[in-house]
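Dear colleague,

Following up on yesterday's call, I've attached the two folding results inline so they're easy to grep. Please treat them as preliminary; we haven't cross-checked anything against experimental data yet. The first protein's sequence and C-alpha coordinates come first.
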Amino acid sequence: MSKSERLLSYIREGRTMTQAEKLRLIVSLSVPSILAQISATVMFFIDAAMVGHLGARASAAIGLVETTTWLMGGLGSAANMGFSVQVAHFIGANDFESARRVLRQSLVCCMLWSLMITLVAFAVHAHLPYWLGGSADIAHDASIYFLLIGVSGIFFQMEGLAGSMLKCSGNMKMPSALNILMCLMDVVFNYFFIYIFDMGVVGAALGTGVAMLVTAGLMLYFLLVRSPMLALFGHAMKSGRQEKAALYRPTSDVVGTAFKIGAPMGLNHTLMGGAQIVSTIIVAPLGTVAIAANSLAITVESLCYMPGFGIAEAATTLVGQGAGAGQRMLTRSFANLSVGLGIMVMTFMGLLMWVFAPELMAIMSPVEEIIAQGADALRIEAWAEPMFAVSIVCNGVFIGAADTLKPAIMSLTSMWGVRLTLAAWLAPRYGLRGVWTAMAIELTFRGSIFLVRMLRGEWQKES
Protein backbone atom coordinates (compact mmCIF):
# COMPACT_ATOMS: atom_id res chain seq x y z
CA MET A 1 0.00 0.00 0.00
CA SER A 2 1.40 3.41 -1.00
CA LYS A 3 1.60 6.31 1.45
CA SER A 4 -1.31 8.11 -0.19
CA GLU A 5 -3.48 4.95 -0.08
CA ARG A 6 -2.60 4.51 3.59
CA LEU A 7 -3.50 8.12 4.37
CA LEU A 8 -6.75 7.83 2.42
CA SER A 9 -7.66 4.81 4.54
CA TYR A 10 -7.32 7.05 7.61
CA ILE A 11 -10.31 9.05 6.35
CA ARG A 12 -12.50 5.95 6.06
CA GLU A 13 -11.31 4.60 9.41
CA GLY A 14 -11.85 7.89 11.26
CA ARG A 15 -8.22 8.14 12.36
CA THR A 16 -6.54 11.41 13.33
CA MET A 17 -4.15 13.01 10.84
CA THR A 18 -1.44 15.59 11.48
CA GLN A 19 -1.22 18.79 9.44
CA ALA A 20 1.87 17.41 7.71
CA GLU A 21 0.01 14.21 6.77
CA LYS A 22 -2.93 16.21 5.42
CA LEU A 23 -0.68 18.41 3.32
CA ARG A 24 1.29 15.38 2.11
CA LEU A 25 -1.95 13.69 1.04
CA ILE A 26 -3.18 16.81 -0.79
CA VAL A 27 0.13 17.17 -2.61
CA SER A 28 0.38 13.46 -3.47
CA LEU A 29 -3.09 13.54 -5.03
CA SER A 30 -2.58 16.93 -6.65
CA VAL A 31 0.75 16.34 -8.37
CA PRO A 32 -0.41 13.61 -10.82
CA SER A 33 -3.51 15.64 -11.62
CA ILE A 34 -1.49 18.84 -12.06
CA LEU A 35 0.89 17.07 -14.42
CA ALA A 36 -2.07 15.75 -16.40
CA GLN A 37 -3.71 19.18 -16.50
CA ILE A 38 -0.48 20.81 -17.63
CA SER A 39 0.06 18.14 -20.27
CA ALA A 40 -3.48 18.74 -21.51
CA THR A 41 -2.73 22.43 -21.69
CA VAL A 42 0.48 21.74 -23.56
CA MET A 43 -1.58 19.59 -25.94
CA PHE A 44 -3.94 22.48 -26.68
CA PHE A 45 -0.93 24.79 -26.78
CA ILE A 46 0.73 22.66 -29.46
CA ASP A 47 -2.57 22.19 -31.30
CA ALA A 48 -3.12 25.93 -31.39
CA ALA A 49 0.47 26.53 -32.45
CA MET A 50 0.15 23.99 -35.28
CA VAL A 51 -3.04 25.65 -36.50
CA GLY A 52 -1.66 29.12 -35.79
CA HIS A 53 1.15 28.56 -38.24
CA LEU A 54 -1.46 27.90 -40.91
CA GLY A 55 -2.44 31.57 -40.60
CA ALA A 56 -4.80 33.92 -38.75
CA ARG A 57 -7.89 32.56 -40.55
CA ALA A 58 -7.31 29.02 -39.31
CA SER A 59 -6.78 30.20 -35.72
CA ALA A 60 -9.87 32.39 -35.92
CA ALA A 61 -11.99 29.49 -37.25
CA ILE A 62 -11.19 27.34 -34.21
CA GLY A 63 -11.28 30.30 -31.82
CA LEU A 64 -14.76 31.23 -32.99
CA VAL A 65 -16.35 27.92 -31.91
CA GLU A 66 -13.94 27.06 -29.11
CA THR A 67 -16.14 28.42 -26.34
CA THR A 68 -19.09 26.38 -27.63
CA THR A 69 -17.01 23.19 -27.53
CA TRP A 70 -16.16 24.07 -23.93
CA LEU A 71 -19.88 24.31 -23.26
CA MET A 72 -20.41 20.78 -24.58
CA GLY A 73 -17.53 19.50 -22.49
CA GLY A 74 -18.87 21.25 -19.42
CA LEU A 75 -22.28 19.61 -19.79
CA GLY A 76 -20.59 16.22 -20.04
CA SER A 77 -18.47 16.91 -16.96
CA ALA A 78 -21.53 17.98 -14.95
CA ALA A 79 -23.21 14.63 -15.64
CA ASN A 80 -20.03 12.77 -14.68
CA MET A 81 -19.66 14.62 -11.39
CA GLY A 82 -23.28 14.01 -10.46
CA PHE A 83 -22.43 10.32 -10.20
CA SER A 84 -18.76 10.35 -9.17
CA VAL A 85 -19.38 12.53 -6.10
CA GLN A 86 -21.84 9.88 -4.90
CA VAL A 87 -19.14 7.27 -5.42
CA ALA A 88 -16.68 9.32 -3.33
CA HIS A 89 -19.21 9.56 -0.51
CA PHE A 90 -19.89 5.81 -0.54
CA ILE A 91 -16.19 5.01 -0.58
CA GLY A 92 -15.67 7.34 2.38
CA ALA A 93 -18.42 5.41 4.18
CA ASN A 94 -16.71 2.06 3.28
CA ASP A 95 -19.78 1.04 1.22
CA PHE A 96 -18.09 -0.23 -1.94
CA GLU A 97 -21.08 -2.20 -3.22
CA SER A 98 -23.21 0.95 -3.29
CA ALA A 99 -20.34 2.74 -5.05
CA ARG A 100 -20.35 0.07 -7.79
CA ARG A 101 -24.12 0.34 -8.05
CA VAL A 102 -23.81 4.06 -8.80
CA LEU A 103 -21.04 3.35 -11.30
CA ARG A 104 -23.19 0.88 -13.27
CA GLN A 105 -26.03 3.35 -13.61
CA SER A 106 -23.66 6.17 -14.51
CA LEU A 107 -22.38 4.27 -17.53
CA VAL A 108 -25.88 4.03 -18.99
CA CYS A 109 -26.99 7.56 -18.13
CA CYS A 110 -23.82 9.29 -19.30
CA MET A 111 -23.78 7.35 -22.55
CA LEU A 112 -27.32 8.52 -23.34
CA TRP A 113 -26.47 12.08 -22.30
CA SER A 114 -23.45 12.22 -24.62
CA LEU A 115 -25.52 10.98 -27.54
CA MET A 116 -28.01 13.80 -26.98
CA ILE A 117 -25.22 16.39 -26.97
CA THR A 118 -23.79 14.93 -30.18
CA LEU A 119 -27.18 15.15 -31.91
CA VAL A 120 -27.50 18.81 -30.93
CA ALA A 121 -24.00 19.52 -32.27
CA PHE A 122 -24.92 17.88 -35.56
CA ALA A 123 -28.10 19.93 -35.81
CA VAL A 124 -26.48 23.34 -35.25
CA HIS A 125 -22.95 23.03 -36.68
CA ALA A 126 -23.67 24.65 -40.05
CA HIS A 127 -25.33 27.72 -38.52
CA LEU A 128 -23.19 28.20 -35.41
CA PRO A 129 -20.32 30.25 -36.92
CA TYR A 130 -22.79 32.81 -38.31
CA TRP A 131 -24.70 32.96 -35.00
CA LEU A 132 -21.40 33.80 -33.32
CA GLY A 133 -20.72 36.68 -35.69
CA GLY A 134 -18.10 34.91 -37.81
CA SER A 135 -17.42 35.99 -41.36
CA ALA A 136 -17.91 33.77 -44.41
CA ASP A 137 -14.17 33.25 -44.91
CA ILE A 138 -13.84 31.23 -41.67
CA ALA A 139 -17.36 29.83 -41.30
CA HIS A 140 -16.85 26.58 -43.24
CA ASP A 141 -13.75 25.48 -41.33
CA ALA A 142 -15.33 26.51 -38.04
CA SER A 143 -18.51 24.51 -38.63
CA ILE A 144 -16.67 21.33 -39.71
CA TYR A 145 -14.30 21.57 -36.74
CA PHE A 146 -17.25 21.94 -34.36
CA LEU A 147 -19.09 19.00 -35.95
CA LEU A 148 -16.12 16.64 -35.62
CA ILE A 149 -15.51 17.62 -32.00
CA GLY A 150 -19.23 17.07 -31.35
CA VAL A 151 -19.13 13.60 -32.88
CA SER A 152 -16.16 12.82 -30.61
CA GLY A 153 -18.25 13.83 -27.59
CA ILE A 154 -19.09 10.26 -26.62
CA PHE A 155 -15.36 9.48 -26.30
CA PHE A 156 -14.84 12.58 -24.20
CA GLN A 157 -17.80 11.62 -21.99
CA MET A 158 -16.62 8.09 -21.30
CA GLU A 159 -13.01 9.16 -20.79
CA GLY A 160 -14.14 11.86 -18.37
CA LEU A 161 -16.52 9.57 -16.48
CA ALA A 162 -13.96 6.80 -16.02
CA GLY A 163 -11.26 9.28 -15.02
CA SER A 164 -13.55 11.03 -12.55
CA MET A 165 -14.55 7.73 -10.95
CA LEU A 166 -10.93 6.63 -10.56
CA LYS A 167 -9.97 9.97 -9.03
CA CYS A 168 -12.87 9.94 -6.57
CA SER A 169 -11.70 6.50 -5.45
CA GLY A 170 -8.31 8.06 -4.69
CA ASN A 171 -6.49 6.78 -7.78
CA MET A 172 -5.04 9.93 -9.30
CA LYS A 173 -1.99 8.37 -10.94
CA MET A 174 -3.61 6.17 -13.58
CA PRO A 175 -6.08 8.68 -15.06
CA SER A 176 -3.36 11.34 -14.96
CA ALA A 177 -0.90 9.05 -16.76
CA LEU A 178 -3.51 8.21 -19.39
CA ASN A 179 -4.34 11.88 -19.90
CA ILE A 180 -0.66 12.58 -20.47
CA LEU A 181 -0.60 9.72 -22.97
CA MET A 182 -3.65 11.24 -24.69
CA CYS A 183 -1.77 14.52 -25.07
CA LEU A 184 1.18 12.78 -26.69
CA MET A 185 -1.12 10.87 -29.04
CA ASP A 186 -2.97 14.06 -29.89
CA VAL A 187 0.25 15.78 -30.95
CA VAL A 188 1.27 12.81 -33.10
CA PHE A 189 -2.16 12.38 -34.70
CA ASN A 190 -2.48 16.12 -35.29
CA TYR A 191 0.89 16.25 -36.98
CA PHE A 192 -0.15 13.53 -39.40
CA PHE A 193 -3.65 14.84 -40.09
CA ILE A 194 -2.69 18.55 -40.30
CA TYR A 195 0.62 18.34 -42.15
CA ILE A 196 1.18 14.88 -43.64
CA PHE A 197 -2.41 14.54 -44.92
CA ASP A 198 -2.71 18.33 -45.39
CA MET A 199 -6.16 18.52 -43.71
CA GLY A 200 -5.65 21.81 -41.84
CA VAL A 201 -8.35 22.68 -39.30
CA VAL A 202 -10.22 19.44 -39.99
CA GLY A 203 -7.05 17.51 -39.19
CA ALA A 204 -6.82 19.18 -35.78
CA ALA A 205 -10.32 17.93 -34.91
CA LEU A 206 -9.65 14.41 -36.21
CA GLY A 207 -6.38 14.14 -34.29
CA THR A 208 -8.06 15.13 -31.06
CA GLY A 209 -10.99 12.75 -31.66
CA VAL A 210 -8.78 9.71 -32.30
CA ALA A 211 -6.67 10.46 -29.22
CA MET A 212 -9.83 10.68 -27.11
CA LEU A 213 -11.12 7.38 -28.49
CA VAL A 214 -7.98 5.45 -27.53
CA THR A 215 -7.78 7.07 -24.11
CA ALA A 216 -11.44 6.39 -23.34
CA GLY A 217 -10.93 2.67 -24.02
CA LEU A 218 -7.88 2.52 -21.76
CA MET A 219 -9.54 4.54 -19.00
CA LEU A 220 -12.60 2.28 -18.96
CA TYR A 221 -10.35 -0.79 -18.80
CA PHE A 222 -8.56 0.42 -15.69
CA LEU A 223 -11.85 1.40 -14.07
CA LEU A 224 -14.04 -1.59 -14.93
CA VAL A 225 -11.42 -4.36 -14.84
CA ARG A 226 -8.45 -3.23 -12.74
CA SER A 227 -9.82 -0.92 -10.02
CA PRO A 228 -9.66 -2.62 -6.57
CA MET A 229 -12.68 -0.65 -5.32
CA LEU A 230 -14.85 -0.20 -8.41
CA ALA A 231 -14.09 -3.02 -10.90
CA LEU A 232 -17.27 -4.55 -12.33
CA PHE A 233 -15.77 -7.38 -14.37
CA GLY A 234 -14.40 -10.23 -12.34
CA HIS A 235 -16.18 -8.96 -9.23
CA ALA A 236 -18.02 -11.81 -7.51
CA MET A 237 -21.76 -11.26 -7.07
CA LYS A 238 -24.39 -13.58 -5.63
CA SER A 239 -27.17 -12.34 -7.92
CA GLY A 240 -28.21 -14.05 -11.14
CA ARG A 241 -27.96 -12.76 -14.70
CA GLN A 242 -31.29 -10.97 -14.71
CA GLU A 243 -30.52 -9.33 -11.38
CA LYS A 244 -27.10 -8.29 -12.64
CA ALA A 245 -28.64 -6.73 -15.73
CA ALA A 246 -31.15 -4.89 -13.55
CA LEU A 247 -28.29 -3.23 -11.67
CA TYR A 248 -27.55 -1.18 -14.80
CA ARG A 249 -31.08 0.21 -14.96
CA PRO A 250 -31.25 3.80 -13.68
CA THR A 251 -33.08 4.12 -10.36
CA SER A 252 -34.76 7.18 -8.92
CA ASP A 253 -32.49 7.49 -5.88
CA VAL A 254 -29.20 7.40 -7.79
CA VAL A 255 -30.39 9.47 -10.75
CA GLY A 256 -32.21 11.88 -8.45
CA THR A 257 -29.08 12.51 -6.40
CA ALA A 258 -27.00 12.83 -9.57
CA PHE A 259 -29.50 15.38 -10.86
CA LYS A 260 -29.39 17.31 -7.59
CA ILE A 261 -25.59 17.52 -7.80
CA GLY A 262 -25.14 17.73 -11.56
CA ALA A 263 -28.09 19.90 -12.64
CA PRO A 264 -26.78 23.10 -11.01
CA MET A 265 -23.37 22.33 -12.49
CA GLY A 266 -24.95 21.70 -15.89
CA LEU A 267 -26.95 24.93 -15.70
CA ASN A 268 -23.81 26.71 -14.57
CA HIS A 269 -21.82 25.30 -17.49
CA THR A 270 -24.63 26.19 -19.89
CA LEU A 271 -24.93 29.79 -18.77
CA MET A 272 -21.19 30.19 -18.24
CA GLY A 273 -20.64 28.69 -21.67
CA GLY A 274 -23.27 31.04 -22.98
CA ALA A 275 -21.39 33.89 -21.35
CA GLN A 276 -18.18 32.74 -23.03
CA ILE A 277 -20.03 32.68 -26.33
CA VAL A 278 -21.33 36.20 -25.71
CA SER A 279 -17.75 37.19 -24.92
CA THR A 280 -16.73 35.76 -28.30
CA ILE A 281 -19.48 37.81 -29.94
CA ILE A 282 -18.13 40.92 -28.17
CA VAL A 283 -14.63 40.17 -29.52
CA ALA A 284 -15.76 39.24 -33.05
CA PRO A 285 -16.36 42.84 -34.29
CA LEU A 286 -12.76 43.68 -33.30
CA GLY A 287 -11.57 41.68 -36.33
CA THR A 288 -9.84 38.46 -37.32
CA VAL A 289 -6.57 39.40 -35.60
CA ALA A 290 -8.36 40.10 -32.31
CA ILE A 291 -10.31 36.83 -32.51
CA ALA A 292 -7.09 34.90 -33.12
CA ALA A 293 -5.17 36.77 -30.39
CA ASN A 294 -8.01 36.22 -27.92
CA SER A 295 -8.20 32.49 -28.66
CA LEU A 296 -4.45 31.93 -28.53
CA ALA A 297 -4.05 34.01 -25.35
CA ILE A 298 -6.74 31.90 -23.68
CA THR A 299 -4.76 28.79 -24.58
CA VAL A 300 -1.55 30.28 -23.14
CA GLU A 301 -3.32 31.45 -19.99
CA SER A 302 -4.55 27.94 -19.32
CA LEU A 303 -0.93 27.06 -18.45
CA CYS A 304 -1.51 29.14 -15.32
CA TYR A 305 -4.85 27.86 -14.17
CA MET A 306 -4.58 24.16 -15.02
CA PRO A 307 -2.50 23.47 -11.88
CA GLY A 308 -5.38 25.00 -9.94
CA PHE A 309 -7.77 22.49 -11.49
CA GLY A 310 -5.39 19.69 -10.52
CA ILE A 311 -5.49 20.80 -6.88
CA ALA A 312 -9.26 21.23 -7.12
CA GLU A 313 -9.64 17.61 -8.25
CA ALA A 314 -7.66 16.46 -5.21
CA ALA A 315 -9.87 18.65 -3.01
CA THR A 316 -13.02 17.12 -4.50
CA THR A 317 -11.75 13.62 -3.72
CA LEU A 318 -10.67 14.41 -0.16
CA VAL A 319 -13.73 16.47 0.71
CA GLY A 320 -16.03 13.87 -0.88
CA GLN A 321 -14.54 10.97 1.06
CA GLY A 322 -14.35 13.06 4.24
CA ALA A 323 -18.02 14.01 3.91
CA GLY A 324 -18.95 10.37 3.34
CA ALA A 325 -17.00 9.39 6.47
CA GLY A 326 -18.70 12.15 8.48
CA GLN A 327 -15.40 13.86 9.39
CA ARG A 328 -16.37 17.53 9.32
CA MET A 329 -13.25 19.02 10.95
CA LEU A 330 -10.91 16.98 8.77
CA THR A 331 -12.89 17.94 5.68
CA ARG A 332 -12.65 21.65 6.51
CA SER A 333 -8.92 21.33 7.11
CA PHE A 334 -8.47 19.70 3.69
CA ALA A 335 -10.43 22.58 2.14
CA ASN A 336 -8.32 25.31 3.77
CA LEU A 337 -5.00 23.66 2.94
CA SER A 338 -6.05 23.02 -0.68
CA VAL A 339 -7.05 26.63 -1.28
CA GLY A 340 -3.79 27.90 0.24
CA LEU A 341 -1.77 25.57 -1.98
CA GLY A 342 -3.74 26.68 -5.05
CA ILE A 343 -3.04 30.36 -4.35
CA MET A 344 0.70 29.72 -4.01
CA VAL A 345 1.00 27.71 -7.21
CA MET A 346 -1.12 29.95 -9.42
CA THR A 347 0.47 33.15 -8.13
CA PHE A 348 3.85 31.78 -9.18
CA MET A 349 2.46 30.72 -12.56
CA GLY A 350 0.92 34.17 -13.04
CA LEU A 351 4.30 35.78 -12.42
CA LEU A 352 5.90 33.59 -15.07
CA MET A 353 3.09 34.41 -17.51
CA TRP A 354 3.55 38.16 -16.98
CA VAL A 355 7.31 37.94 -17.58
CA PHE A 356 7.24 35.64 -20.62
CA ALA A 357 3.96 36.72 -22.26
CA PRO A 358 5.50 37.88 -25.59
CA GLU A 359 7.64 34.76 -25.91
CA LEU A 360 4.68 32.47 -25.20
CA MET A 361 2.53 34.23 -27.78
CA ALA A 362 5.36 34.03 -30.32
CA ILE A 363 5.24 30.25 -30.02
CA MET A 364 1.54 30.35 -30.91
CA SER A 365 1.69 32.62 -33.95
CA PRO A 366 4.27 34.31 -36.19
CA VAL A 367 1.94 37.31 -36.77
CA GLU A 368 3.38 40.33 -34.91
CA GLU A 369 0.02 41.99 -34.30
CA ILE A 370 -1.43 38.80 -32.80
CA ILE A 371 1.63 38.48 -30.55
CA ALA A 372 1.34 42.08 -29.35
CA GLN A 373 -2.38 41.96 -28.58
CA GLY A 374 -2.14 38.55 -26.94
CA ALA A 375 0.81 39.56 -24.73
CA ASP A 376 -1.05 42.66 -23.52
CA ALA A 377 -4.05 40.49 -22.63
CA LEU A 378 -1.95 37.95 -20.72
CA ARG A 379 -0.22 40.62 -18.63
CA ILE A 380 -3.59 42.05 -17.62
CA GLU A 381 -4.87 38.60 -16.65
CA ALA A 382 -1.75 37.73 -14.62
CA TRP A 383 -2.88 40.04 -11.82
CA ALA A 384 -6.07 38.02 -11.30
CA GLU A 385 -4.42 34.59 -10.95
CA PRO A 386 -4.33 34.42 -7.10
CA MET A 387 -8.07 34.97 -6.73
CA PHE A 388 -8.75 32.86 -9.82
CA ALA A 389 -7.03 30.06 -7.88
CA VAL A 390 -9.41 30.62 -4.98
CA SER A 391 -12.47 30.32 -7.21
CA ILE A 392 -11.18 27.13 -8.88
CA VAL A 393 -10.16 25.25 -5.73
CA CYS A 394 -13.15 26.42 -3.69
CA ASN A 395 -15.40 25.09 -6.43
CA GLY A 396 -13.65 21.72 -6.15
CA VAL A 397 -14.31 21.79 -2.41
CA PHE A 398 -17.99 22.63 -2.92
CA ILE A 399 -18.43 19.85 -5.48
CA GLY A 400 -16.91 17.28 -3.12
CA ALA A 401 -19.46 18.33 -0.49
CA ALA A 402 -22.28 18.05 -3.08
CA ASP A 403 -22.88 21.79 -2.62
CA THR A 404 -23.37 22.93 -6.20
CA LEU A 405 -26.49 25.13 -6.41
CA LYS A 406 -25.45 28.29 -4.57
CA PRO A 407 -21.88 28.34 -5.99
CA ALA A 408 -23.41 28.03 -9.46
CA ILE A 409 -25.65 31.03 -8.79
CA MET A 410 -22.66 32.99 -7.48
CA SER A 411 -20.59 32.15 -10.58
CA LEU A 412 -23.37 33.12 -12.95
CA THR A 413 -24.03 36.39 -11.15
CA SER A 414 -20.34 37.23 -11.33
CA MET A 415 -19.95 36.23 -14.98
CA TRP A 416 -23.05 37.89 -16.38
CA GLY A 417 -23.28 40.81 -13.97
CA VAL A 418 -19.60 41.78 -13.86
CA ARG A 419 -17.54 40.34 -16.74
CA LEU A 420 -19.94 40.68 -19.66
CA THR A 421 -21.29 44.05 -18.56
CA LEU A 422 -17.78 45.46 -18.26
CA ALA A 423 -16.56 43.76 -21.45
CA ALA A 424 -19.43 45.15 -23.53
CA TRP A 425 -18.67 48.63 -22.20
CA LEU A 426 -14.85 48.46 -22.46
CA ALA A 427 -14.40 46.58 -25.78
CA PRO A 428 -15.49 49.44 -28.10
CA ARG A 429 -13.21 51.84 -26.20
CA TYR A 430 -10.12 49.75 -25.51
CA GLY A 431 -10.41 46.74 -27.83
CA LEU A 432 -9.10 43.38 -26.64
CA ARG A 433 -7.43 45.01 -23.63
CA GLY A 434 -10.84 46.09 -22.41
CA VAL A 435 -12.25 42.56 -22.71
CA TRP A 436 -9.38 41.08 -20.70
CA THR A 437 -9.53 43.84 -18.09
CA ALA A 438 -13.17 42.93 -17.53
CA MET A 439 -12.15 39.28 -17.23
CA ALA A 440 -9.46 40.04 -14.61
CA ILE A 441 -11.85 42.15 -12.51
CA GLU A 442 -14.55 39.48 -12.61
CA LEU A 443 -12.21 36.62 -11.64
CA THR A 444 -10.98 38.62 -8.66
CA PHE A 445 -14.55 39.33 -7.60
CA ARG A 446 -15.61 35.69 -8.00
CA GLY A 447 -12.65 34.41 -6.00
CA SER A 448 -13.46 36.85 -3.21
CA ILE A 449 -17.08 35.78 -2.79
CA PHE A 450 -16.14 32.09 -3.03
CA LEU A 451 -13.52 32.54 -0.30
CA VAL A 452 -16.05 34.19 2.00
CA ARG A 453 -18.48 31.30 1.48
CA MET A 454 -15.80 28.70 2.18
CA LEU A 455 -14.52 30.38 5.34
CA ARG A 456 -18.08 30.68 6.68
CA GLY A 457 -18.53 26.93 6.28
CA GLU A 458 -21.85 27.23 4.45
CA TRP A 459 -20.84 24.46 2.04
CA GLN A 460 -20.76 21.95 4.92
CA LYS A 461 -24.24 22.95 5.97
CA GLU A 462 -25.44 22.03 2.48
CA SER A 463 -23.79 18.59 2.46
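Below is the second protein, in the same order (sequence, then structure):
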Amino acid sequence: MSCERRVLGSVRVMPVYLAMGEAAGLAAALAARLPGGDVHAVDVGRLRGRLKEEGAYLPDVEQADPVAK
Protein backbone atom coordinates (compact mmCIF):
# COMPACT_ATOMS: atom_id res chain seq x y z
CA MET A 1 0.00 0.00 0.00
CA SER A 2 1.15 3.48 -0.71
CA CYS A 3 -0.13 6.68 0.85
CA GLU A 4 1.05 10.04 2.04
CA ARG A 5 2.43 10.21 5.55
CA ARG A 6 -0.34 12.51 6.77
CA VAL A 7 -3.03 9.86 6.07
CA LEU A 8 -1.07 6.87 7.34
CA GLY A 9 -2.54 7.12 10.86
CA SER A 10 -6.06 6.85 9.48
CA VAL A 11 -5.16 3.92 7.26
CA ARG A 12 -3.48 1.98 10.08
CA VAL A 13 -6.64 1.87 12.20
CA MET A 14 -8.93 0.69 9.41
CA PRO A 15 -8.50 -3.06 10.16
CA VAL A 16 -9.36 -2.43 13.82
CA TYR A 17 -12.53 -0.55 12.89
CA LEU A 18 -13.45 -3.25 10.39
CA ALA A 19 -13.20 -5.94 13.07
CA MET A 20 -15.08 -3.82 15.59
CA GLY A 21 -17.85 -3.12 13.07
CA GLU A 22 -18.18 -6.79 12.22
CA ALA A 23 -18.48 -7.70 15.91
CA ALA A 24 -20.98 -4.90 16.59
CA GLY A 25 -23.11 -5.88 13.60
CA LEU A 26 -23.18 -9.54 14.56
CA ALA A 27 -23.97 -8.65 18.18
CA ALA A 28 -26.87 -6.50 16.97
CA ALA A 29 -28.15 -9.34 14.76
CA LEU A 30 -28.00 -11.79 17.68
CA ALA A 31 -29.70 -9.27 19.97
CA ALA A 32 -32.51 -8.77 17.45
CA ARG A 33 -33.43 -12.42 17.93
CA LEU A 34 -33.72 -12.05 21.72
CA PRO A 35 -36.86 -10.92 23.54
CA GLY A 36 -36.57 -7.17 23.89
CA GLY A 37 -33.53 -7.03 21.59
CA ASP A 38 -31.14 -6.27 24.45
CA VAL A 39 -27.58 -6.33 23.15
CA HIS A 40 -26.33 -6.68 26.74
CA ALA A 41 -28.08 -10.07 26.92
CA VAL A 42 -26.12 -11.51 23.98
CA ASP A 43 -24.09 -14.57 24.93
CA VAL A 44 -20.51 -13.40 24.43
CA GLY A 45 -19.23 -16.95 24.00
CA ARG A 46 -21.72 -17.51 21.19
CA LEU A 47 -20.78 -14.16 19.63
CA ARG A 48 -17.08 -15.03 19.72
CA GLY A 49 -17.79 -18.47 18.28
CA ARG A 50 -19.81 -17.04 15.38
CA LEU A 51 -17.11 -14.45 14.68
CA LYS A 52 -14.49 -17.20 14.54
CA GLU A 53 -16.75 -19.23 12.21
CA GLU A 54 -16.82 -16.22 9.89
CA GLY A 55 -13.02 -16.03 9.93
CA ALA A 56 -12.50 -13.21 12.40
CA TYR A 57 -9.17 -13.13 14.22
CA LEU A 58 -9.89 -13.64 17.89
CA PRO A 59 -7.16 -14.96 20.15
CA ASP A 60 -8.32 -17.33 22.85
CA VAL A 61 -8.74 -15.62 26.19
CA GLU A 62 -9.28 -17.08 29.60
CA GLN A 63 -12.46 -16.05 31.35
CA ALA A 64 -11.57 -13.44 33.94
CA ASP A 65 -12.98 -13.94 37.40
CA PRO A 66 -14.96 -10.73 38.12
CA VAL A 67 -14.63 -11.34 41.86
CA ALA A 68 -10.87 -11.89 41.91
CA LYS A 69 -8.76 -9.02 43.21
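For the second protein, one point worth flagging: The mean pLDDT is 86.

Best wishes,
A.L.
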